[in-house]
Design brief:
The complex is a heterodimer of chains A (about 300) and B (about 270).
Chain A (H helix, E strand, L loop, with lengths): L1 H5 L3 H4 L8 H4 L1 H27 L17 H8 L1 H35 L2 H15 L3 H12 L4 H8 L12 H25 L3 H9 L4 H29 L3 H5 L8 H11 L3 H34 L1
Chain B lengths: L6 H25 L17 H8 L1 H34 L5 H13 L2 H19 L7 H25 L3 H9 L4 H12 L1 H16 L3 H6 L7 H11 L3 H24 L7
Helix pairs in contact in B: 1-12, 2-12, 3-6, 3-9, 3-11, 4-6, 6-9, 7-8, 9-12
């Protein structure tokens, strides 16, 4: 009766003699109600309001005018600037999640198949600690490395080169930062899936003469596909919504979607357009995620046959 | 072990990739001790002055205190709300359980920047309607951070409750213990490690939250993450490295404590 406890339907209310407060009627409702109410009031409700506002009209100086227009969405898709912002965000997200996969897979495989229990535990700590350090600090660290007089420039300088490295404030630098921030997510996701693959399958393939490359391609990768997909989609979603890395490593001339949402809502106070940006970002991410899952499932079925 | 695997290649890849993840943090700790006036490599000498300088800046000092305070509230309030809900999710069958689970985990699924924008607009709307200021206020910030922390509590505590053998609580019940006694005397002690782990995780999740706080901080009321990002937009020196090092030390200590109670990789 939990859902009834949150929103009693008209039917229930129309039975006055038997009606008791939902919290008395069902202890389960009482247990989940505070959390559900909190999330509904502070997140889901406001999201609905945000969606509604994305159809309003913005009049400078007046905050906004209630309307029912697709003008904000049309503006986004008509303006080459915003199309460029979306493309840049999609490009860096796709590249960094693929790089995470390529770099992360060998590490996850090593952890599961080749490392001792002790080493594996250490590696997990080495992955989780950075994950919980916060993107602000981790991005700051990359700024120290990639900056004009940073560590990378210092190392280049040791070899008698200019000592100047113009990588900060470029797309490359943003991707480096994102990959470093997101890699632990990828490795931990792959690790948990690889743990579930029976080792004897690989040994069997090996004993029948398969090389390690063949074992990976024909045995491990097909079985790990759900985990690979989950890891790639997680990294993709996180980089689509990344804020600190594009703002700080990308610099003022680099534009990604999440900072643009902040800019419109908080700075320009153009709520209708900011709301439209937020939903374009969420829907694009969701559509690509769902599309990739469907595609992978079809392919997976073919692979399995 | 897979006899054909090129172990050496894997080892090199693992060291290189882990270095790529961990070394930046080591570098920023190192830089916090440089005596170079302008940040550059190699160091000219070492000093602790940057820590004093970081502490002397109000935004970092007050930011750290506000962040600790907010995270403490979020972590405890999230236990108070999350543990009963987790109990219902793990122990009771009821219609709409999946919906309730999805609602409770939603703050983790909705992108921080979108959720932050929605909450900010909602706060302003409430302020216009009732003249109660929420955006930039302490309760407004607390509520947002409680939302950030809640899914962590739900995930960790539900997982732990599912693992509790039902026969212990049935045994207690058959000896005459009521449901409340069973919960406080049997269930809570059994899941204590998960409670500690989830409190610490929720604390850290709130402490490092950037996107939601971005919208909700106000003049003179800035969390540490926002202070770091605003500083970095205009400056890059060892002051920020000292701040980062303090944060790294706090979080590392908390997570190493957590690691004694729960397997860290299970949380992701």
């Amino acid at each position: 009766m939990a859902m009834a406890g949150i929103a009693p339907s008209a039917q229930e209310i129309s039975r006055p003699p038997k009606w008791r407060p939902p919290l008395v009627r069902s202890p389960v409702a009482a247990l989940v109600a505070p959390g559900v109410l909190l999330v509904t009031l502070l997140l889901l409700g406001p999201l609905a309001i945000l969606l509604r506002y994305s159809f309003n009209r913005f009049v400078p100086g007046e905050l906004m005018v209630s309307a029912l227009t697709l003008g904000n969405y049309a503006k986004f898709f008509a303006d080459p600037y915003y199309q460029d912002v979306l493309w840049t965000t999609l490009r860096i997200s796709a590249l960094s999640s693929l790089l995470c996969l390529v770099l992360g897979f060998p590490v996850a495989y090593f952890m599961v198949r080749l490392a001792s229990t002790r080493l594996k535990a250490l590696m997990i700590i080495a992955l989780v600690l950075p994950l919980m350090m916060g993107n602000a600090v981790r991005t700051a660290a990359w700024m120290v490395i990639l900056g004009e007089r940073g560590l990378a420039a210092g190392i280049v300088g040791l070899f008698g080169l200019t000592g100047r490295l113009d990588i900060m404030y470029t797309e490359k630098a943003v991707i480096i930062g994102l990959v470093s921030v997101l890699l632990p997510f990828m490795i931990l996701t792959l690790q948990s899936v690889l743990e579930g693959i029976d080792r004897s399958l690989e040994d069997a393939a090996g004993s029948l003469g398969a090389s390690h490359g063949q074992i990976l391609r024909r045995v491990v990768l097909p079985l790990a596909l759900p985990g690979i997909l989950a890891g790639v989609l997680l990294c993709f979603t996180l980089s689509m919504n990344a804020y600190a890395t594009p703002v700080l490593i990308g610099g003022p001339k680099f534009h990604a979607m999440a900072p643009e949402v902040y800019q419109q809502v908080q700075r320009a106070m153009n709520w209708p357009f900011g709301a439209a940006l937020a939903f374009i970002l969420m829907i694009t991410t969701l559509a690509l995620t769902v599309g990739a899952t469907a595609l992978a499932q079809r392919r997976y079925r073919r692979w399995a046959e | 072990m897979n006899a054909t695997a090129p172990v050496l290649l894997y080892r090199i890849a693992a060291v290189a990739v882990l270095g790529f993840i961990v070394l930046p943090l080591a570098v920023i700790v190192w830089v916090s001790f440089f005596s170079n006036r302008i940040l550059s490599f190699p160091p000219e000498g070492y000093t602790l002055d940057w820590y004093a300088r970081a502490w002397s800046r109000a935004e970092f000092r007050e930011g750290l205190l506000l962040s600790l305070q907010t995270a403490l509230f979020a972590s405890l309030a999230s236990l108070a709300i999350g543990v009963p809900a987790s109990y219902a999710l793990a122990r009771c069958k009821f219609p709409g359980r999946d919906v309730v689970t999805n609602i409770l985990l939603a703050p983790m699924v909705v992108p921080g920047i979108v959720g932050g924008a929605a909450m900010y607009i909602f706060y302003i709307d409430v302020e216009i309607a009732t003249e109660v200021q929420l955006a930039g206020s302490l309760p407004g910030l607390y509520a947002a951070h409680l939302l950030v922390a809640l899914p962590w509590t739900i995930r960790l505590v539900t997982a732990s409750l599912i693992g509790v053998d039902r026969s212990i609580s049935e045994a207690a019940a058959s000896l005459g213990a009521g449901p409340v006694t069973v919960f406080f005397r049997i269930i809570l002690p059994v899941i204590k490690p998960a409670l500690i782990a989830s409190a610490l995780f929720a604390f850290v999740a709130s402490f490092i939250d950037l996107e939601k706080s971005l919208f909700l901080v106000g003049p003179g009321r800035t969390t540490l993450q926002i202070a770091i990002v605003s500083y970095l937009e205009w400056n890059l020196d060892s002051t920020i490295a000292a701040v980062a090092t303090v944060q790294i030390a706090i979080i590392a200590a908390l997570l190493l404590i957590t690691n004694r109670y729960a397997q860290l990789n299970r949380a992701f």
